[in-house]
Amino acid sequence: MSFHDVVFPAALSFGSSGGPERRTEIIALANGFEERNATWAHARRRYDAGLGLRSLDDVHAVITFFEARLGMLHAFRWKDWADYKSCAPSETVSAFDQPLGLGDGTTRVFNLGRVYASGGVEYRRPVTKPKIGSVRVGSDGVEVSASGFTVDHQTGAVSFDEAPQAGAVLTAGYEFHVPVRFDTDRIEVNLAAFEAGEIPSIPIIEVRV
């Protein structure tokens, strides 16, 4: 898959709508019970970028971005304002926000992930597009110097210069983007309608990377 390492204009994504979508198969049984099966291990997010447009300059910026991506062909980074940090949006990222792994004295590479916990149940979402320069790492409650690890911002892999000691509890904090593409090869804008308050629909969909 072709991926352009560029972020959709954050000021325009701020007013967008969207969120996670899951795929669940439900079979109704003769006795009235149901059998439910999740066919996707991870949610796929959808957004509408059109709702963030407020001026003709905004329309121009989106069309420029759309043309540079050749429509649906090339994926890109998207900032989901409702979920773009390892912590709540109003909080400050720290090195201890999310579990990263457990040291064994040998393994040097660990993958970023965000845990969603509710009612005693946890789901860990892979984070593959951390924001450059935002990743902080901790080990047993102490922040690790930035010189002690590197981050692959294309995969979300954190590589320690030296393998963490066995039993070390590793944590991480960061901002991140969602890898997405346009879900249309056509953008239609009626300028008269736009100035009257009618905003075009510009669908965006998450891609697997």
Description of the structure:
This protein starts with a strand and ends with a strand. Helix content is 11%, strand content 37%. It has helices at residues 10-13, 56-68, 191-195; strands at residues 3-7, 17-21, 24-28, 34-38, 44-48, 75-78, 98-102, 109-111, 113-118, 121-126, 136-139, 142-143, 149-152, 157-160, 169-173, 178-182, 203-206. The protein has three helices and 17 strands. It is mainly beta. Strands 1-6-16-17-5-2 form a six-stranded mixed β-sheet, with no helix packed on it. Strands 7-15-11-12 form a four-stranded antiparallel β-sheet, with no helix packed on it. It has a three-stranded antiparallel β-sheet with strand order 8-14-13, with no helix packed on it.
Structural class: mainly beta
Radius of gyration: 20 Å
Number of helices: 3
Contiguous uncertain segments of 5+ residues? none
Note the beta-strand portion: 35-45%
What features would you highlight for this structure?
six-stranded mixed β-sheet; four-stranded antiparallel β-sheet; globular
Q: Outline of this structure?
A:
With 209 residues, the protein is mainly beta. Helices cover 11% and strands 37% of the residues.
Please give the structural blueprint.
Layout: E1 3-7, H1 10-13, E2 17-21, E3 24-28, E4 34-38, E5 44-48, H2 56-68, E6 75-78, E7 98-102, E8 109-111, E9 113-118, E10 121-126, E11 136-139, E12 142-143, E13 149-152, E14 157-160, E15 169-173, E16 178-182, H3 191-195, E17 203-206
Parallel strand pairs: 1-6
Antiparallel strand pairs: 2-5, 3-4, 5-17, 6-16, 7-15, 8-14, 9-10, 11-12, 11-15, 13-14, 16-17
